[in-house]
Amino acid sequence: MAQQHDEPVAHILLLHSVFGLRPAVLAAAARLRAAGHEVTTPDLYGLPAADTVQDGFALLDKVGRDSVLERARAAAHDLPAEAVLAGFSMGAGVAGALLAERPQAAALLLLHGTGGAPESVRPGLPVQLHLADPDEYEPPDELDEWRRAMTGAGAELSVYRYPGPGHLYTDPDVPDHDALAAALTWDRALAFLAG
What we know:
Blueprint: E1 11-15, H1 23-34, E2 38-40, H2 53-63, H3 65-76, E3 84-88, H4 90-98, E4 108-111, E5 126-133, H5 140-152, E6 156-163, H6 179-194
Parallel strand pairs: 1-2, 1-3, 3-4, 4-5, 5-6
Helix pairs in contact: 3-4
């Protein structure tokens, strides 16, 4: 029998990757809702999602990084101050950028990319990162520097690496997909959000 929740376990702002608002993002939101969370999945482009990463970067260039951040900010506006900030790849970076304006965020959930600046981190902030190993967009030296900065700022940081899959391995519609790594990622992410 499914567990019933009188109130959501968490409010989550879930931000898409450079591809746009793809079915995989909506499926992830449905998975989180099934666990009792309330999830907001804004379209940061306002345009149909891309089929390739190159087309995704073209969309990002067309819309502009400032507009993407402004749309994320608008989506967060009516959410509780303690809403969890979460994102896929580019969306992880946007979630991290919003942390500066939402210091009471309950947690930062980063999928396929780092996010958050040390000066935005309050001591004890739960941060969880899931990343392919290796990941073409997260060089080891940059990842190590980010990890040191976040823990130095007091984040309660957990980093999970998944050997073998490509960058966006939780998305079943891209060549990077790895079903086992994706399943393990969601198990860990759900446990993190429940904690």
